[in-house]
Amino acid sequence: MQTLQSLLKNKISTKEIFYVEQGKSEYEFFANDVREALLNNTFGDNFFFYSKPGYSKTFTTNKVAEEAGINLVKFEGSIGLFAFCADVATTLLAAPKDNSKIYCLFDDCDSLLTKGDNLNTLKGVFDSDRQVLSYRKQLGPQYAQLDDLQKEAIDAFRQEGRGGFSIPTDRFVFITLSNSPLADDDEVEKATDSKRQHKIDLMAIRRRVQYKDMPFDVGVDWGYCANILLSSQLAEQWKPDITFEEKLEILKFSSPSNNWDRLNERNLSLFDKMVKDMVRFPDNYYDRWISQYIRN
To answer: Are the CB atoms for 11 and 248 separated by under 8 Å?
Structure first.
């Protein structure tokens, strides 16, 4: 089997081949971290992965889980805290009545990280001593809009004489994906008075999870995307008959020695759109790339 290096030799520059190799390594580090969270999670830790948007966090996590034969329960943070809590309650109520772990993909959670009340709730989920998801506000119109199963789930975790509901999360393992980083000590020290508490709360979550970030050096961000384009079915989902030479066109157009620094988007979403353009505009997709994706 040809290596990436031999496959790309004399097709792109030596430096760009290096970027692809480094991008491949970064991808494998991330995939192995996800695999560790799912298969070798001795302590039942929760994991939090951060990178800039568009770098296949969701795609990779789902792929690793599928390969491992693990069914990931999907939660979307963008739906809001109450809806997230309702989904967690429904999942636990429907789970087998044993001590088996419930593996969860908590995706698109950035909006929940912007409010202090949300952070206090999430700290309880990730705290190994508490392991509880508590929604302490009075239930109002949002509750009335739920379906019967969701209402039954929430009612199962309500406590007499107390508002809201409280869900034990000791069976849950959350793999949380975010486009926003969690604060560290340095950020807390530099924060203004108005933002310091928020940074402290973010740092508190960071201490409670296995936190991994994916910082990309210049060029390696392109190499990361290039590796996925070459080694996965990312392009084939839109163009099943795509050839290596066509993938090479995408790489050459977007490469650091050509247009990478001038592109409106610099992530896998761009590659996705470029493949779709090949299908929609087979005779002039290159012209479309120039007009649509390069900054004037």
So the answer is: yes
Q: What are phi and psi of 211, to 5 degrees?
A: -100, 130
Angle CA 224–108–39, to nearest 5: 65
Place of tokens 């030596």: 14
> Do 276 and 172 share a structural domain?
no
Find the distance separating the first CA and the last CA of the chain, reported in whole Å: 42
Other beta carbons within 10 angstroms of residue 2's beta carbon come to 8
Say if residue 184 is in the same domain as residue 76.
Answer: yes
- The residue to which tokens 């520059």 are assigned: 13
pLDDT for 155-203, tens place per residue?
Answer: 999 987 778 899 999 999 999 999 999 999 999 999 999 999 999 999 9
Q: Is 122:205 a contact under the CB 8 Å cutoff?
A: yes
Q: HSE-up of 125 (CA within 13 Å, CB side)?
A: 27
The residue out of 213, 228, 258 marking a domain boundary is 213
Task: Tell me the residue range of the domain where 67 lies.
Answer: 22-213
User: What domain count does the chain have?
Assistant: 2
Residue-wise pLDDT tens digits, 100-123: 999 999 998 898 998 888 999 999
Rg of the chain, C-alpha, whole Å: 22
Domain shared by 32 and 173, yes or no: yes
